[in-house]
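call fold(seq) -> tokens
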Amino acid sequence: MGNLVVNEKNIVIPGEEIANGMDFLPSFGTYRDGESIIANRLGLVSVRNRVIKVIALNGVYMPQMEDLIIGIVKDVGFSGWTIDIGSVTYANLPVGEAVRDKVELLKSDISKFYEIGDIIITKVMNVTKSRIVQLSMRDHGLRKLQGGIIVKVVPQKIPRIIGKQGSMVGMIKEYTKCDISVGQNGFIWICGPADKMNITKRAIKLIEEKSHISGLTDKVKEFLESESK
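ret:
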């Protein structure tokens, strides 16, 4: 008799065992290795009538420890905050990882530190086996961001948006004079005059859409020059 190693709707990575035993059949996103069924893509496990498949999570951010990301506060709890990080689930920011001073939870309203809608630069402190994500603000540069807007892109395009040694994002900053912070989760914070933020957003989206072509830097430069006239 076979058994599932992970639960349905769990997230699996390539090479991870999903089930063992010959009672299960592999389908899309999986393959059989001996008596085991293995994932060959990142995605959600689906089991129907003992047929197992993995539904791909294209463009979804998968948190890794030490990632520097940008999040949006979605809820304020008793002992911490729920943060939208663009993943399949929200992340947790405990009070102890967000506030250096001692906080008496029974007497304190922690929304005075962070409230719903606040945008923060934070770090992935831990990802448990059950994919619970815990965040921390205890590092240099981690803080609440004031004003501005969030632009969301496919996380896999972030290296192209940053460019070699920050060259691409540096060029956008030079032309628009906007403050830009880039999270590894695909959330990009922009702050500046409304017209300049719009140009910056369009430049970022141009890079995301054309990231596969050669001569991209020149195309982005031409766009920025034309918009800056």
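The helical segments are 158-162, 167-176, 194-209, 216-228.
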